[in-house]
Design a protein that fits this description.
Layout (H helix, E strand, L loop, with lengths): L2 E4 L6 H11 L7 E4 L10 H10 L4 E3 L3 H11 L9 H7 L4 H9 L5 E3 L4 E3 L10 H17 L1 H7 L14 H14 L2 E3 L4 E2 L13 E3 L13 E3 L8 E3 L2 E3 L9 E6 L7 E4 L9
Parallel strand pairs: 1-2, 2-3, 5-9, 9-11
Antiparallel strand pairs: 1-12, 4-5, 6-7, 6-8, 10-11, 12-13
Helix pairs in contact: 3-7, 6-7, 6-8
């Protein structure tokens, strides 16, 4: 049995199908992890959702920020600042209700102790242990299942920007969502710098990637993530970033997690141009 992880698809269905063929992926025996952001910006978000859902239990998906945005467009539209045109086709589809019900039940963090890896979309604050991250993820997942409208309506915003175990209610849930689906940079004090994107070298003084904070409590844990196309493929001890910018004309990345192998990088045609 092979265990693969694939980076952000963002509606790139054709490339996804080619990559699975190149891997000779067998859904009867193999397992697949997806780093989130299944939808948006690419031309075929609806087809991606249908395809991944049809894979059933052999595929594990964590929610990304674009996936949550789709859910907010559906269930908390008054709070959405931008209605993404690529997502309207999903909401108008005859099977939209089934697809959204499936999507909202996906986790924000998946941990496999036997495999030795943890899957997230974006990042972890330096103060969290892996156990804390998992507990906070479960809180958001429970809130999504119980009352998705309220959680989605309250998730937008950049505050609070530094972890406190005293957080409760919407503050605690929003902080968790921001870490697991939006985080790239932090400062030396462990504050989330959610406005910063771009390559590592573009950050101002005092900013650093979340995974390079010297006091990161998860530095001895193995984490695979996406979300950061400007970072591209990253392979460091205990870290793999698999967002290699397929939708921007980069590549779609697949990595076998149960063996020490080089990634498979599929060149992509690109459906969008970076805004800079």
């Amino acid at each position: 049995m092979a265990h693969y992880a694939i980076g952000d698809l963002q509606g790139c269905h054709a490339e996804f199908m080619v990559l699975l063929e190149r891997l000779r992926f067998d859904s009867a025996h193999d397992r697949l992890w997806l780093t989130g952001d299944l939808v948006n910006r690419g031309p075929a978000s609806l087809e991606v959702l249908r395809e991944v859902r049809a894979l059933g239990n052999c595929a594990t998906v964590v929610l990304g920020n674009h996936d949550l945005h789709l859910l907010a467009m559906a269930w908390a539209p008054a709070t959405v600042r931008r209605r993404e045109p690529e997502l309207v086709a999903v909401l108008d589809a005859p099977d939209a209700a089934d697809l959204l019900a499936w999507l909202v039940s996906r986790p924000l963090l998946h941990r496999d102790p036997a495999l030795g890896w943890t899957l997230i979309h974006a990042g972890l604050p330096p103060q969290w242990t892996l156990a804390q991250a998992e507990a906070c993820a479960r809180e958001v997942e429970a809130a999504l299942c119980k009352d998705p409208v309220t959680l989605l309506a309250q998730m937008y915003g950049d505050q609070p920007d530094r972890w406190s175990p005293e957080f409760s209610g919407p503050e605690r849930l929003r902080f968790t969502v921001n870490c697991l689906t939006r985080l790239r940079f932090v400062d030396a004090g462990g504050r989330l710098l959610l406005g910063l994107k771009g390559p590592v070298g573009s950050a101002p003084a005092g900013a650093m990637p979340w995974f390079r904070h010297p006091e990161r409590a998860t530095r001895n844990d193995a984490v695979v993530f996406g979300h950061w196309s400007a970072l591209g493929y990253l392979s460091e001890p205990g870290l793999r970033c698999l967002d290699t910018g397929c939708v921007w004309g980069g590549t779609l990345c697949a990595l076998r997690l149960d063996r020490d192998e080089e990634p498979l990088l599929l060149p992509c045609r690109g459906n969008r141009q970076p805004s800079g």
